[in-house]
Amino acid sequence: MSVKDGEYVSTTMLAKSIQLKGSDLVELLHDRGWTKKEGKHRLLTDKGIEAGGKYKSNDNGDKWAIWHPSIVETTTFKTEIIGTMSQIKRRFKLPGVDDLNKDQDKVLRLPEDGQFLIVGGPGTGKSVVALLRTMKYNKNNDYAFLTFNNVLLSATKQLVEFSLNSFTLDKWFNAEYKNIFKESLYKYDANNSGYQKPNYSEVIKRFESREIISQSLHIIIDEGQDKPTKYYEVLMHFGIENFFIVADQNQQITEDNSSRQELTDLLGLEVEDVIELKENYRNSHPIGLFSSSFFTDLSSPPPNLPSISKSSLGIPILYEYSNYQDCVKMILREADRDNRNLIGVVTANDDVRDAYVEKLETTELNLDNPKPIISTYSSKDKKAPNINFAYSGIVVLNDKSIKGLEFDIVFIMIDGFKVYNNDMDSMKKRFYVMSSRAIKKLVLLKSENYNDGVESILPKDDSILRRERLNNG
Amino acid sequence: MANKKNRWLMPTNTDNLRMIIAQGLISSPDGFKKYYSDVLELFIGYVPLFKNRIQPDILNNVISETEGLTQCILEFDLSLIQGLGKTIDGSCLVDITLKDVENDTIDILLILAPIPISCISKVIFKTNADKKSFEEDAGLYSNVPLNELNLHHTKTDQKLFETKAEITDYPIDKFKSMELEIVKDIDYNKVYAFGGMLANLFYFAKNGIISNDTFLSCSLEERIATEHDFSRITNYFFSSKESENSKSLYNGIVDIAVRHNNFKEGIIEFLESNPKTVNMANKLRTFEAISDKPVSEEFSEAQTSLGKVLLMLFHRENTEALMEYNLNIFTEEDYLAFAVMFGIRDKFIKVPKFLRESKDLQNFISTKMAKYAHENLNSQIKFKESRRPLTIMDMLKNDRFKEYLAKELKIENCFQTVVPKSDYHVVKGKPVFEGIVMPKFEILEEKYFKFMSTQMPKDYNKYLDKYNKVK
């Protein structure tokens, strides 16, 4: 249906129609990625335009977003905007001086220029120091904050309250590459219906034919272990001199990765120059203990656990169920108990992920609070994640997408995880990453018919993993 | 021409300075959660102050622990401290009355720790870049408010950092070898818990008269006579000797909040150690586990105030999270009990930044904590009181401020207007009074509490500015 411009209303008028303050709706539209701020103007994003936003302008060239009043009746608006109003806003919480240990202080005292490698296990605050460093020097506007995957990028951008110049490692470098060679680094492979991985040796040769022009740009890389050393060599040929890389080789989830030693050598550092963060601040002792049972790296010890728990409070629990609807109800009720929580539901593949998203969205329960937002993302979607980490709710993700993230409560859906070729190490690494995402509670759920090999890597000790039967009735 | 006043200086590094601001006290090293070697470990238990200049080896010492530390110097206003200090006479330490210090020839003064940050008149930086960097870095932390500090750099003061001068009679090793009388340990956990409690009481004083009175009483270090649960908690700090069961249960719980690193663990162990409280422990275990019962239902079922307090301490992880939470079943006394227990558990260092930035609060509580610590030491050190921050209820005694706040928060229905008894006649349906009759605005306490207990006002300084204009 086409609508005449005259029937459209301003954001303030739209807000009035749903008894909201204009400024609140402006903030919600921004938070949900419908608008973005550029200078003093709020411009529509592609998402905002897709949702139905248009522009109105005056003679001075100023333009502003307008909406058709009926937009408030659309499912998208109801889910993304009205639904969000009941959710609690989350922000990257600045640490107290006392929350950082001396190793982390040392990182914050590092000079602006140079090559730095920070290593540490999950929850040791690697990303926190990377973000704090970015905040510290961000004013110089000579920074790029780079992450391995889209989800971590999206979460980081949404949680910080300053404009973060951030990209995924691939997207950023491809843009720089295109700028120089006027072509994409990624070639489409029609036979495989996908993009080929770049041949970094060839790329280096191309750069070698040019003079290296030193760049003042500082790059800060989170989860730096997931790129091969050749990638970093390419960056050096590109003229990058200021590297700040945080990494954990025990969380390598790709085949193309770099070890701690490789990164150390690459940056020309002495072993003692590498700063190691050892304390696990994220997980409670029981969750940390459970995660450490999947630690596979023989070259470095796992992070130190918080002080021991004698009371057995918070021991991770494995529920065996006969009906997965019971799991869905459990997740929804747990989300309702504290509507500030961000809950992660981790699945093995898209089929399981889609099934849980659908069930979580359609299951109706009597809850204290409005139903939480259910969001999801798959790297196969080939578009930016539609997850708002700035709000509480339930996020359903495959395990490959959750690295670097943290959730108040994590539910791991074991069905779908399968051990291939008896490769227990790979499965352990996946469980190490998944379980170490949890801050407050960790729950594993397994159907009574599941028999694909994961059970053998789970701790048998009741003081590390409790086992119970789930029957919600 | 009048004699130039002496300057009393304490060198340290900016990392320690951040911690001093965050914890609210210049304490001995055992009062720091994280401490970098500096002059405070030269005379354990004392804060050493140097007159007008600092010898080079001491300046170098404060940045010797690790690479990248930055020197700074705290200058103290001695007129705010009274009592007895110590100084060096030959190789001995001797007492000196602080009021005599100005006329004496001494170069070093030791004052028993802790000292409140309100006594710092200036923080001196070696370079403007150091000062700027300190100011900017403060924004990276949640507990380093700079609003009540005077940060300073001048070319003249740069000389204080010169390290070329000759070492005086007191090389650092000589200090280290001096014998000090053993200073009684200060229970810093309890001191910081007291500060956390006061800060939370200041915030929750917004809720009504009982809350406001409780803050005022605790500010004066007075025991509270009521039998409300919150008074049993606050009285823990004022030499309670009760031994009745319920009171010792409270003392035990407060003690865990003061000292235990993992509060939930400590509470479960404590409650399970007594058959009478095992049930309470079980309820908390259930609450903590995966449960299909809504939290509001759990609070409704809690039969005692203590039960609600414990549930809240398990439900909300810090004071800011408590401030965001409300249920219409809670009374003003419930909120007070939550406030004091959260303040005690989290200590002053975890007080939310927006609250710490309330005008006069940081200095006021710092002085109160220092005073409390010295009273427990029976020391002869006294500090000049810092100005108490006005509470919202204090400001609401002014009718013009009442009018402002009612409009600002859109809570006109929480007030009523009373016209004093006076002769009047009715003109066109309106009462007309003879002379000038000023109406009074009164708070409708119940309505006001119902509203304010659900609000998290972060605009204290704005309200105070307005109050200062209209009063």
Which SSEs are present, and which pair or pack?
The complex is a heterodimer of chains A (473) and B (471).
Chain A: E1 9-10, H1 11-17, H2 22-31, E2 35-38, E3 41-44, H3 46-51, E4 54-57, E5 63-67, H4 75-85, H5 102-108, E6 115-120, H6 126-137, E7 143-147, H7 150-159, E8 166-168, H8 169-181, E9 188-189, E10 194-195, H9 200-208, E11 215-221, H10 229-237, E12 240-247, H11 260-266, E13 275-277, H12 285-292, E14 317-321, H13 324-337, E15 342-347, H14 350-362, E16 374-377, E17 393-398, E18 407-413, H15 424-435, E19 438-447, E20 466-469
Parallel strand pairs in A: 6-12, 6-13, 7-8, 7-11, 11-12, 14-19, 14-20, 15-17, 15-18, 16-17, 18-19
Antiparallel strand pairs in A: 1-5, 2-3, 4-5, 9-10
Chain B: E1 8-13, H1 14-23, E2 25-26, E3 46-51, H2 56-61, E4 71-76, E5 81-82, E6 84-89, E7 92-97, E8 108-112, E9 115-116, E10 120-125, H3 128-138, E11 151-152, H4 155-158, H5 172-177, H6 188-204, H7 209-219, H8 229-234, H9 245-259, H10 263-272, H11 278-288, H12 295-301, H13 305-315, H14 319-323, H15 332-346, H16 353-356, H17 361-377, E12 382-383, H18 392-395, H19 399-408, E13 415-418, E14 424-427, E15 430-433, E16 440-443, H20 445-452, H21 460-470
Parallel strand pairs in B: 10-11
Antiparallel strand pairs in B: 1-3, 1-4, 2-9, 3-8, 4-10, 5-12, 6-7, 13-16, 14-15
Helix pairs in contact in B: 6-7, 6-15, 6-17, 9-10, 9-15, 10-11, 11-13, 13-15, 19-21
